[in-house]
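Aim 2 progress update. The chain analyzed this quarter is reproduced below.
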Amino acid sequence: MLLAGLAASCAEARSAGPGDDPLEPPHRDACCLLAWRPAVLKPAVLVRGTTPWNPRTAAASEARATAGANSGPAADPAAGTDEGERPRPVSTTTTKNPSRFGFASHLACRECGATTGLGGTHVCAGCFGPLEVAYDLPELTRSGIESGPPNIWRYASLLPVPPGVAASPNTEPGCTRLLRADQLARELGMAALWVKDERGNPTHSFKDRVVAVALAAAVEMGYKVLACPSTGNLANAVAAAAARAGIRSVVLIPADLEPQKIAATAVYGGTMVAVDGTYDDVNRLASELADEREDWAFVNVNVRPYYAEGSKTIGYEIAEQLGWRLPEQIVVPVASGAQLVKIDKAFRELIELGLVADTRYRVFGAQAAGCAPVVAAFEAGYDVVQPVRPATIAKSLAIGNPADGPYVLDVVRRTGGAVADVGDPELVSAIRLLARTEGIFAETAGGVTLGVLRRLLAQGLLDPGAETVIINSGDGLKTLDAVADGSGAPPAIRPTLAAFRLFEESLPAPDSP
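Predicted structure tokens:
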């Protein structure tokens, strides 16, 4: 258990089908939509620059420089990679029967490569690097997956969960909509744009996915309490999942969290603790508690290797919904960075299993300007992330010391992408733009993602002719304060036709279609 404290200290310092319209879906099964695929933009080679002090051990850094923290598509390995980086296999295939964690085989250090057995540990005993789940994956077919339940458990064979997980009491997240955003695309001058809309999850954010996987693993390992430090969405998801499973929940939140997220956590009846400090302060306290409370599963601390794998299901769904192929570009919000890294891992696993073609894709990260440590590291050419103190209304992205920051850098550089940021006014403008053009009310993180898409287009870093997916990770109803100014009810009128006509005459002329 000492390892959790040490880790906290280190953290501080598819093919196309028939159809007349190439963008018209041929069928609408639980998770299926088809899209046209235009030409690919070849990314430029990025070179890493001078590196600041690295809090990771020298042995781990040397191993990572040789093997790379992540692997990727086989096509043109020189483009968008760091010099000397060599991809590692995603997994091996097997004919074995699943174990109590399905086809997960062991935990592997993302830094030095050391392995350990599956269990309640999250840092490497040798170099204190973070651990990740590795697999002996079974042979899978598209039809086999499509015949599964209409939630994330259709991908259970690719997750570290018990074989019978779908039958256990859980919130059944996933299979959220992938919406073709034609009106938004026209406004932005893009050929093909999709929004992966995570509002459809049980507590209206993608966090239900990761929590469902963490809960299944935690119960299997004998934990009695489901807990987390959270910027809001995770607190909602943990409280709801624990209530559904019939176990106790404890969530720690910054005291200045949005009121909507506090209320949406308290309603489930678990224990909620408001902490006077930033999310990073809350996370530090959670790490200390994880050392002390041996039967508490902090989903994003001591069971983080399992928890993070849940984000892969976003990537699986996107590929399935596009007709079993990968998008050419994807823009993902970055808080801890795990969502971006795991979507990339999902794409690589699908390629490895032959479920999608090995085609080029580029990954882009989006941060709020008031909390953009990964952007700073990317622009400076660093391979580690220096912590910052968050100052942004996008509280769900306000993690000043992102655990997966270095791996975000690896992914975007390897795939020829980038990481960029936008300020609070730009993210609010983007929220309104998405709502006005597509009827999607995004939370602040979604505003950041669309705002960064606009910035990348303006800077020529993202190809407007390439099929692009953006992630809306949560519901705008959770962050109403962000759009409160100028969004109130208009002045009241008398209940007469004359009054209505006067009101109508005062309105600006509607835009031409």
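The first strand starts at residue 92 and ends at 94. The CA atoms of residues 192 and 467 lie 5 Å apart. These observations will guide the mutagenesis experiments scheduled for the next reporting period.
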